[in-house]
Amino acid sequence: MKILFGFLLILNIIGFLMMGIDKKRSQKSQWRVPEKRFWILGILGAGIGLYAGMKVYRHKTKHRAFTVGMPFIILLNLLVYVFIGLVIN
């Protein structure tokens, strides 16, 4: 269980930082992080970090897919965490 928690923590930190990196790159008209990568990270468990990054960096907040989709992904993540917790214990 500790390994899973550590993995999810690292994944959420990566998601949070990627939002910041993408925001800076968008301001400088540089190469951007593909949106598909954000969704994959979210599905893998980084939804909270990505959503926090959206709010802190004010990035992707006008994209309805992100403002509605990330909270939905977070809900799915939490349901999976609860299920895994019940199965392991």
Please give a handful of descriptors for the protein shown.
single chain, transmembrane helix, mainly alpha, 89 residues, nucleic acid binding, Cold_shock_CspA
Characterize the structure shown:
This is DUF1294 domain-containing protein. Pfam families: DUF1294 (PF06961). The chain crosses the membrane at residues 36-54, 66-88. It comes from Calidifontibacillus erzurumensis. The protein contains 3 helices and no strands. By secondary structure, it is mainly alpha-helical. The protein has one domain. α1 packs across α2 and α2 (35-57) packs across α3.
Secondary structure: elements and pairs:
Blueprint: H1 2-27, H2 35-57, H3 64-88
Helix pairs in contact: 1-2, 2-3
Q: What's the gist of this structure?
A:
Helix content is 83%, strand content 0%. The protein is mostly helical.
Q: Number of folding domains? A: 1
- The percentage of residues in β strands lies in under 5%
Whole-number average pLDDT? Answer: 93
| Gyration radius from CA atoms, angstroms | 14 Å
Shape: elongated
Distance between the termini: 10 Å
